[in-house]
Amino acid sequence: MVNFVLDSLSSSVTMDISGSIHSVPIVPIDASATAIFEVSVADMKDVFKFQTDSNDVQNDSEADIRYLVDMASWPDLNPANAMMDHPSSLNPIAVSNTDGALDANKMLVGHDFVRYLALKLFNTHFGVDLFDNELELLNDLRYICGNDDEGQTWHDVVDKLTSVSKNGTHAGLATDTDGNKYMTNATDSSDNLCKVLFDQMMGSAKTRFADISTGVDGYQSLPFVADDSISFKLTIAPADGQEELTGVEAFAPRSYEIKLIIKESPANTEVAEDEPYTAPSL
């Protein structure tokens, strides 16, 4: 056999169409303040994963990418205990009292909102000392932001993630050969939480996908890096009729961007839920 070559027939071409990817911009959260937790890079990579399908070459985006959420490494947090004195925190009501800088365990969202109540009711955050139920106010905030019952903040966060997880019940879930449930682009709504993160990452840090590799189970982690963050908004309203305490005009809720900053070695200073609380020196 002879492999003949005709060099004069050789040619080169340049494509007219570039490969494209779907992406979305990240819309900043409009909130009164920003409160911080630090979470692990490794944990977030364990929670949010995707799988690409190279079996075909067609524009079947609903089948080409799978989005998997594994809740095993999701942290147990309470947004009422998010930090208001972290270097990335923004707009706390106060950072000091008459004795100087406030202690870290008095600079959490719960304390900040009680100071907000005082500011609105007494025209100064130092008015917290006029409340005779400071501890009850704090514990109420910790309860309604907790994870015990439906309607509590962290319970609902966990429930929304669990619904679309590999063990979830969302109607948009499909099941792979290993029994893991996943979502696809067929669910193009905010419910598809891993897809939302994937699309935002494609819009803001697409170069991270230049070297993706398939994991042992066929899924690969979203390529989070240290100092990325995942945020959501928490709005806290005062109790009905709170303004009647001092006869001021009704005042608006206070909103917080709860930001989970991703770190290689997180330093999470959240107050433990089972720690006995004493009346705080706000």
Summarize the structure in words.
The chain is α+β, with helices and mostly antiparallel strands. It has one domain (33-263). Helices cover 21% and strands 16% of the residues. It contains 6 helices and 10 strands, in the order E-H-E-H-E-E-E-H-H-H-E-E-H-E-E-E. It has helices at residues 41-47, 61-64, 109-122, 134-144, 153-163, 193-204; strands spanning 33-40, 48-52, 65-69, 96-97, 100-101, 174-175, 181-182, 220-221, 229-236, 254-263. The strands form 4 sheets. It has a 3-stranded mixed sheet. Strand 6 and strand 7 (181-182) form a beta hairpin. The protein is elongated and about 100 Å long. The protein starts with 32 loop residues before the first strand and ends in a 19-residue tail after the last strand. Mean pLDDT is 86; it is low at 55-60 and 272-282.
In the predicted model, the low-confidence regions spanning at least 5 consecutive residues are: 55-60, 272-282
The number of strands is 10
Tell me what portion of residues adopts beta-strand conformation. Answer: 15-25%
Q: How much is the average pLDDT?
A: 86
Number of domains: 1
- Helices and strands, in order, run as EHEHEEEHHHEEHEEE
Shape descriptor: elongated
SS summary, helix count: 6
Helix content, binned percent = 10-25%
Radius of gyration (CA) equals 25 Å
Structural class: alpha+beta
Strand order of the largest sheet: 1-10-9
User: What summary fits the major beta sheet?
Assistant: 3 strands, mixed
Q: What distance lies between the first and last C-alpha atoms, to the nearest angstrom?
A: 90 Å
